[in-house]
Amino acid sequence: MFKTEQILSGMATLAISLGIAGVIGRSFSHKPFTGTDTLSLPGSDLPFIGPLLFDQDSLFYLTLILVIALWYVMRHTRVGLRLRAVGEDPASADVAGVAVDWYKLIAATLAGSLCGLAGAYLCLSGSNVWVDNMIAGRGWIAMALVAFARWQPLRALAGAFLFGALEALLPRMQASGVDMPIYLMGMIPYLLTIAVLIIIARFGRHDAQPAALGMIYLRQDRH
Prior knowledge:
The protein is mainly α.
């Protein structure tokens, strides 16, 4: 997009964002606030599945809507077709008249916005309090989830439920008296993430990710 190395740019953005969040949020740290309200939909009284699917907060249902909307846009609209073309072969997309840099900017902005919404969800629907670095590396799990889902939004949703269920299960295991060191228990989601990446690298197909992922496109290099 800005013709810079994307991994280095991403790491720099991460470091800057952590610093900015710490400075701005210092006055709000550890101060409880009112989060989002729970929406009890028809079916919430069903055993087991009712509270999981029909008794959640508004951001949960917004997430479901966003995932379905993104899947539809990517698979069934001209905008999605152009965006996928930019990810697969930006030179061909450029020849076809697609504004490659503009689509990359839109995709990066939307991705950052959704990541911000995910971080806000932890405050508004989880702890109802903001603490510096409360994300605790969950963004790396999200990146592994993208590879696990093979860049498919609906699969990513299923994988998010899987990782989320595991993270929700761990404190309940500790409360029930499971004899496991607390630090080891906290490592489990990240160990699972590493295991998933190893399995994908060893056995997964490598044609799922966009062919031009992470590559800098320069029009003068077009063949």
